[in-house]
């Protein structure tokens, strides 16, 4: 009886072994299909760089008319941004003279955008860096976006 | 007597083998169907290039809203969107959606949820309409 059970288990093990090449074949077919479609259609439409330019444009006019480092400064109502910038964006302003910093969003984009290879890598956020001279003094500004399309 | 016993053993074994075969084939079939469904969905999403145009329109409408000021009226050419939606048998009223609470534009050019993109400008789309004659989307933002 026990030998029968052992045999039965061995048979089941055999079934699983037969399944492995089939699953492997399916994975190869899936990978081929996906890579074929991806190489033909590409990554689609990347809007992050354009969005970064738009944000920089809006931010620049706001920086020229507002002091970001004054206590109680309300960025959203003063600059006309909504809270979507908190999620997949970065707005970073540094006063060159005093060293004061102001940021909204994901601060790690500052590091990610500083990597040399990040400009060509689609997995990294797209950033724009510029300097601005206002009444508050020289400002270093970094604006970044990593917003992807949602289904 | 011996022959009958041998036959019955054979029949029993045959049934066992048949059951195992069906069970293993069902597993193969389920795996194959899962792959086929996934492939069908993937290829279907690129049908008429609808996925691409959904991205283009959702981001370009967001761009227009980001650049707008309160009280502006925006007109956007949607001729390509209407063509693709027509191929997917969608009526013009089912193409564009605006979520003011989340600041989001959704465009649907094939069956499914569509593609959405967020805008950062603190404005709301107060009124919008689609004109099939002029092939334009009209937006009023505040």
List keywords for this structure.
heterodimer, A: about 150 residues, alpha+beta, 4-stranded antiparallel beta sheet, 4 helices, B: about 140 residues, 3-stranded antiparallel beta sheet, about 20% strand
Task: Kindly describe this structure.
The complex is a heterodimer of chains A (151) and B (142). Chain A is of the alpha+beta class. Helices cover 46% and strands 20% of the residues of chain A. Chain A has four helices and four strands, in the order H-H-H-E-E-H-E-E. Chain A has helices at 2-41, 48-65, 75-79, 109-114, and strands at 89-95, 101-105, 126-134, 137-145. Chain A has a four-stranded antiparallel beta sheet. The N and C termini of chain A lie far apart (57 Å). Chain B has 142 residues and is α+β, with helices and mostly antiparallel strands. Chain B is 50% helix and 21% strand. Chain B has three helices and six strands, in the order H-H-E-H-E-E-E-E-E. Chain B has helices spanning 2-45, 50-67, 79-87; strands spanning 73-77, 96-99, 104-107, 115-118, 125-131, 136-141. Chain B has a three-stranded antiparallel beta sheet, with helices on one face. In chain B, a hairpin with a 7-residue loop joins strand 3 (104-107) and strand 4 (115-118). The chains are: A alpha+beta (151), B alpha+beta (142). Chains A and B meet through helix 1 and helix 2 of A and helix 1, helix 2 and strand 4 of B.
